[in-house]
Write a structure and sequence with these properties.
By secondary structure, the chain is α/β, with parallel strands linked by helices. 23% of the residues lie in helices and 26% in strands. The chain contains 11 helices and 17 strands. It has helices at residues 42-48, 98-101, 150-153, 159-169, 185-196, 211-216, 229-233, 251-255, 279-282, 296-308, 323-331, and strands spanning 2-8, 17-23, 30-39, 65-72, 84-87, 90-92, 113-114, 133-137, 142-143, 177-181, 200-205, 221-224, 238-243, 258-266, 287-290, 315-318, 338-342. The strands form 4 sheets. Strands 3, 4, 5, 8, 9, 16 and 17 form a 7-stranded mixed beta sheet that branches. Strand 11 (200-205), helix 6 (211-216) and strand 12 form a beta-alpha-beta unit. Helix 4 (159-169) crosses helix 5 (185-196) and helix 4 packs across helix 10 (296-308). The structure holds NADP nicotinamide-adenine-dinucleotide phosphate and zinc ion. NADP nicotinamide-adenine-dinucleotide phosphate is lined by residues 41-43, 46, 158, 162, 182-187, 205-206, 210, 244-247, 267-269, 291-293, 330, 333, 335.
Length: 347
């Protein structure tokens, strides 16, 4: 067993405390990772606050993990000690079902094992990346390209893949008008990917505050959704709207911005159900869809694409004792655009 200091919460909405857990002994296919940086995703907050239902406590969040391989099991073939690696939202799947076979492990029919707040196939609770060490089967470890620093790489493991995957799946590219709704951790990555893929990119944010930065990330247009004229101006405009907002929205208002056959893809995951009127779909043959992170093969593709196109999150590195404050700041949308914990400060 390997001891690891972690940041954990003992119950919903509790403050973080530093505690110690044991990581499992290395199995033949396991990699022991010395974690250097761990991003803070809004999903960590939803989970720690009980927005999506009761969590498994004590909870150690974190699924944007970047570190260095410290040891490998006897059967590991892809990684060696010293390699720079990442782990995202999942740490195991059956590997055999039709979706695992198509590199869509997130939809594993046996049930994918989440990096935290999950039970692994032995029934043990999983603990995430607000931690010095993690042990993960090599199938769920990805390689971080040399020209991506580990701190900026960490948010790519969730915010990066969660936006890259739907933009690829719904063919964001030349000739497509794509709107990115909400400019937080996910949204600011989505702008960069949609731009790099060749789409015409519009940012829809609540205020005009983030306009200059949106344009610097590659947006072609920017509109404030607090301005009701926005909805008149943009009626029927988009092929695709990628909704990254963590709260409920007026779905009908956003559906009205789609062209015929346009799609509203939700990755933002508020706790309460959304509502919409079916006529908003019928009158334009429109679709509402959702997307969950991305598979491991595509996660590696996203990292390589990010390195090749110099796509990086804009981060604020914090120390372990600032996580409670960071959560409050994310809830106030006072983050530009991702907090990343320097795990060295956990020692
Ligand atoms: P974030 O950094 O907090 O960004 C969310 C953005 O939504 C904010 O920056 C803000 O953008 C907008 N927003 C927040 N509150 C709002 C409100 N009340 N009304 C309208 N807009 C509001 O969060 P994140 O880490 O990007 O995560 C976003 C959502 O995606 C969360 O619900 C998270 O759980 C979910 N998520 C889903 C997946 C998946 O696989 N589907 C993966 C990761 C995360 P503006 O200031 O620009 O308006
Ligand atoms: Zn996440």
């Amino acid at each position: 067993m390997c001891e690891s200091r972690v940041l954990s919460v003992s119950h919903a909405k509790a403050n973080f405390e530093t505690t110690t857990i044991q990581r499992r002994d290395l199995r033949p296919e396991d990699v022991l990772i010395d974690i250097k940086y761990s991003g803070i995703c809004h999903s960590d907050i939803h989970t720690a606050h009980g927005d999506w239902g009761a969590a498994i406590f004590p909870l150690v969040p974190g699924h944007e993990i970047a570190g260095v391989v410290q040891a490998v099991g006897s059967a590991v073939t892809k990684f060696a000690v010293g390699d720079r690696v990442g782990v995202g939202c999942y740490v195991d799947s059956c590997g055999e079902c039709e979706y695992c076979q198509q590199d869509l492990e997130q939809f594993c029919t046996k049930g994918v094992v989440s990096t935290y707040n999950s039970l692994d196939y032995d029934g043990q609770p999983t603990h995430g990346g607000y931690s010095q060490k993690i042990v993960v089967t090599e199938r769920f470890v990805v390689r971080i390209p040399d020209n991506l620093e580990l701190d900026v790489a960490s948010p790519l493991l969730c915010a990066g893949i969660t936006t890259y995957s739907p933009l690829r799946h719904w063919n964001a590219g030349p000739g497509k008008k794509v709107a990115i709704l909400g400019m937080g951790g996910l949204g600011h990555m989505a702008i960069q990917y949609a731009h790099a893929l060749g789409a015409e990119v519009t940012v829809l944010s609540r205020s005009t505050d983030k306009k200059a930065e949106a344009l610097s990330f590659g947006a072609d247009h920017y509109y404030a959704t607090s301005d009701s004229e926005t909805f008149t101006t943009l009626a029927g405009r988009f092929d695709l709207i990628l909704n990254t907002v963590s709260a409920n929205l007026d779905v009908d208002a956003y559906l009205s911005l789609l062209r015929i056959d346009g799609t509203l893809v939700n990755v933002g995951a508020p706790s309460q159900p959304d509502q919409y009127h079916v006529f908003s779909l019928i009158m334009g043959r429109r679709s509402i869809a959702g997307s969950l992170v991305g598979g491991i093969r595509e996660t590696q593709e996203m990292l390589d694409f990010s390195a090749e196109h110099n796509i990086k999150p804009q981060i604020e590195v914090i120390s372990a004792n600032q996580v409670d404050e960071a959560y409050e700041r994310v809830l106030r949308s006072d983050v530009r655009y991702r907090f990343v914990i320097d795990i060295a400060t956990l020692s």
